[in-house]
Amino acid sequence: MTETTEHSQLMDQTYRYQRLIYDATRKYYLLGRDHLIAGMNVQPGERVLEVACGTGRNLDLIRKRYPDAQLFGLDISEQMLTTARAKLGADVSLAQGDACQFDANALFDEDGFDHVILSYSLSMIPDWQGALREAKRQLVPGGQLHVVDFGDSSGLPSWFQRGLLAWLARFHVSPRTSLEPVMRELARDAGEISVEGMFRKYAIYGHFTKNGTTEPKV
Fold first, then answer.
1. What average pLDDT score do residues 27-31 get?
2. More confident residue, 55 or 9
3. For the residues of 83-146, what is the DSSP string, one character each?
4. Does residue 50 register a pLDDT over 90?
5. Consecutive H or E run containing 5
6. Distant-in-sequence, close-in-space partners of 210: CB < 8 Å, separation ≥ 6
7. pLDDT confidence tier of residue 213, bands split at 50, 70 and 90
8. Which of 131, 124, 126, 82 minimizes the C-alpha distance to 102?
9. Does 8 have pLDDT greater than 70?
10. Residues in domain Methyltransferase (predicted)?
11. For residue 182, with 0-12 CB atoms within 10 Å meaning exposed, 13-18 middle and 19 or more buried, which class applies?
12. Which helix (H) or strand (E) holds 181?
């Protein structure tokens, strides 16, 4: 059994029933997702891919905010995709795949994306640095990568940090405390990046724009 298959099975097992209440419960502590969506500035016709799209919650909000965008979602868990398909219908193209390596042409008949989103997913992906590199690879020239995830909570009391880590571990979630330097290294000589801590570094938000320009869509 490959590592990808093992992770897929783990995610299916974890969210087989959790997916039914996921959106109702996670809104209280997956902070910064709406900030990410509001700052995307998606233009009509642009292609937006969410990697590890889960239940489709973010894609649903993006669809409402940017109705002329083309939307795509990828997730390793077929259980999560079952919920996402029911929520999003035929408006959004969804596929099962590994965030660390996937063929966008085979899955979506696309050769790249104008926006790629990683929202509270890197903390659940074993090879999270590989997922960042793959997201960057999938961007067209001038494309933008949007990331929000758990920070190191360094601005919060130590007792809160301990409690949060214990709670997250129940769902196989591990905050990536080196996310900021890894993102900055990812952008070296490849584009522009901004990274900011949110809610006393409970969350971290990063925005990367890939070098180059894309031909206007006609």
1. 61
2. 55
3. HHHHHHGGGEEEEE-BTTB--HHHHHS-S-EEEEEEES-GGG-TTHHHHHHHHHHTEEEEEEEE
4. yes
5. helix 3-15
6. 136, 139, 140, 141, 142, 143, 144, 145, 190, 191
7. confident
8. 131
9. no
10. 48-143
11. middle
12. helix 179-187
- 153 burial (CB, 10 Å; 0-12 / 13-18 / 19+) is buried
User: How far apart (Å, rounded) are the C-alpha atoms in residues 51 and 102?
Assistant: 10
* Average pLDDT score over residue span 112-140: 96
* Contacts of residue 133, Cβ cutoff 8 Å, sequence gap at least 6: 186
User: Could you tell me which residues come within 8 angstroms of residue 71 by beta carbon, excluding any fewer than 6 positions away?
Assistant: 48, 50, 59, 62, 63, 88, 91, 92, 93
Residues whose CB is less than 8 angstroms from the CB of residue 183 and which lie 6 or more positions away in sequence, other chains included = 132, 147, 193, 195, 206, 208
Q: How far apart are CA 60 and CA 151, in angstroms?
A: 25
Query: H helices then E strands: how many in the chain?
Result: 9, 7
What's the pLDDT at 160?
A: 87
pTM: 0.85
| pLDDT greater than 90 at residue 2 | no
Q: With contact defined as beta carbons under 8 Å apart, do 98 and 108 qualify?
A: no
Q: Could you tell me whether strands 191-198 and 203-210 are parallel, antiparallel, or unpaired per DSSP bridges?
A: antiparallel
Pair of tokens at residue 83: 């919920």
Average pLDDT over residues 193-197: 93
Query: Which pair of structure tokens corresponds to residue 12?
Result: 């299916």
Cross-sheet strand order for the sheet of 203-210: 92-96, 70-75, 47-51, 113-119, 139-150, 203-210, 191-198
* φ/ψ (deg, to 5) at 29: -140, 0
